[in-house]
Structure formats: C-alpha cells, structure tokens
Amino acid sequence: MTGMTSNSRPLLNRRLAEFGTTIFAEMSALALRTGAINLGQGFPDTDGPEAVREAAVRALRDGRGNQYPPGPGIPELRTAVAAHQERRYGLSYDPDTEVLVTAGATEAIAATLLALLEPGDEVIAFEPYYDSYAACIAMAGGTRVPVTLRPHEGSFRLDLDELRSAVTDRTRLLLINTPHNPTGTVLTREELTAIAELAVERDLLVVTDEVYEHLVFDDAEHLPLATFPGMRERTVTIGSAGKTFSFTGWKVGWVTSTPGLVTAVRSAKQFLTYVSSGPFQYAVAEALALPDGYFAAFREDMLAKRDLLAAGLTEAGFEVFTPAGTYFITTDIRPLGAALSKEGDGFAFCRALPERAGVVAIPNAVFYDHREAGAPFVRFAFCKRTEVLEEAVQRLKSLVG
Q1: Are 275 and 251 in contact (CB under 8 A)?
Q2: Mean of the per-residue pLDDT values for the chain?
Q3: Would strands 362-363 and 377-381 be described as parallel, antiparallel, or unpaired?
Q4: For the segment 189-237, what is each residue's pLDDT rounded down to a tens digit?
Q5: What's residue 241's pLDDT?
Q6: DSSP state, 41?
Q7: Kind of pairing, strands 359-360 and 253-256?
Q8: Helix ranges restricted to H, 117-258
C-alpha cells in the first residue's frame, strides 16, 4: 500500500493533504541525527518554577485530577484565569460561563475554528502564521485569506489598508496573533484600534491568540483586543500556561469569551479531548497566582537571551529583525551571500545548516501561503539555556569563516 485504496482514493482527507509532516518534526529529527543545537522548535530546555512543579506532584498524590476533571476545567483554574484577566487587563469574566480549559492553545484554536466556521466561510489571518491555523481552518472547511506582515524598518508590520480590502461578504472571522509568532511583532494600540473598528463595522468575530502575552520587550505593550470598544462581545481570547511557565508538555490552555461563544467552543472541544491535564490544571491555577516578580524576572531572562542571540546572528552575517515579543528571532539569510543562503531559499538553507554549522532553525516560508514572500526568512528560538545559546552563537560564526 502506498497511501491509496483499491479505488484509488487517497487515504488522507483531502482537506489535510497539503500539510503532511510538520516542519518541526523534520527539523527536530535532523537535530537528533546530526547532534546539532535545536533552535527550531519553541520549547524551553529547562523546567519552570519548582513550586509549580511541586503543585502538580501534590495534586497527583492527593488524587486531584487523576480521574476526569469537569468538562469546562476545574473550578480552581477557571477562577484563576478569570482573576488573571481582571488583575492584568481589567477584563471581567465569569469563571462558570465565560472560561473554558483546553488541551493547550492548539486545541483551543482547533475547537474554536471547528465551532465557529462552516464550509465556505473566509478567515483572515496574518501570514506568516502558526502552522496549526491553516490546518484547523481547512478541517473546518473554511477558506483562509492571508494578509502578509512585511518587513519595514527592522520589524514586520501590518498594512491596515490591505487588511480592510481583504474583508468580503464571506468573511466570518479575523484570526489575530499578538505577540506574533514567528515574526515577534506586537500590534500597537493604533493597529488594534483599527482592527477593532473594522470588526465592529463589518460585524466580524475575532479569535485572538495571546499565548505570548507575558513576553513583550522594550517599549512594547500587550493589549488584549477584548479590551477595545465593541470587542468584548465578539472576541474569543486564547491563552496558555506552556509559554509563560515553561511547562509546554502539560498542554494547559484556555478560552475566555461570552457565554454564547464559550458554549459554542465547548461543543466542539468536548469531542476532541473531552478533558485533559487533570493534575496539571491544579498546578497552573497556582502558577497564575504567582507574584508579579515572577513574570518580570521571566521577561528579563528572555530579554537577555534575545539580545545574546540577536547579537550573535548579526555577527554571523544575518539581517536580524529584533522581536518586540515571543521567544523567536526572524532573520533574513540573503546578506550571507548567494552561496551560503542557497540563493535565498530558506528551506535549503535550514536543511544544510546542521551539517554546516551544527544548528537547527526553521524556514519561515512554511508559515506562508505566499511561499515566495517568506522564502529568505529563517526563525531561531532563544528559549534555551544561556550556555546553549552561547555555543550556538560560536557555531554560527563559522558561516563567516
């Protein structure tokens, strides 16, 4: 068998045929095979706070969460999520009707799009975009409409006129990601105001992925779209514990929105995982209540790592787009020269980089519908131990002799 049945129909649902194995799996396997430092996939190489880990152990030993937790999530976590949104942003949510716990942000995205889309609905998303967005839109039968963030004066920026012109009578929702993976862009108050006005004017739903909310640097500020006029009632906000507390394997995420939207998302979510992460939910409830000093120290640590890797990449010959948020740096490989940059082909460059320099990165083109727009851009993750980043920087210097 080669993936075809006797009647020649492909085994894989045609909506997913374009996706195949993710680039993360390919590059992580390449890192293992070559012994390269993996700056491709965005997971930390150290665990988060010991107190949070111990809270999970305590829950396991006490028998809390070892059986099915409640469908919407345990009350303690839903209350903690609501308190976090209130304390940080002045957003008030009812823990019983307006908060839903999910198996990470990935399931939150999937359940939300499956719940809210019907075949033929258009979804506007900013490209480059996290790869699950495209797959989930496809599974729901929707049509993705990319609006491209383009490099401008050292960062990637949104063209608001392009966004407005992308909206049609078939547009169902806007899928927003800020801080933005992979470019590190943090949408400004002016940009978010314009997005909010557009959503209200055209009566659009908005799904906003804010998993990097606690990783904003320099003068950037994270502003939840739900805080803008007219947006609380039409916005599904997605959050996650993995990025903030460095326990990505726990897969604890959440959705906050109106009772009607949360009920819709829950209707889809219950047939995906049903429930998940029982004991970890108790631990994340405690994590969200950590003092502000934890979040500040976490951000400062990542800022130092960002600056370390950015300086090393610049010295190695890359053009570096210094991120205002997330823990990824996007680079342009073309300044390395045609031979080293594989003629600006990010895929070829990333496949050759482990053998050439002992480092793994991700080609940004995989996050684009317009592959040519992303071809010369490559993403590196800096959520690693300082000594690992220092070694990676030394290895990358081999690119310039």
Answers
A1: no
A2: 95
A3: antiparallel
A4: 999 999 999 999 999 999 999 999 999 999 999 999 999 999 999 999 9
A5: 98
A6: S
A7: unpaired
A8: 131-139, 160-166, 189-202, 242-245
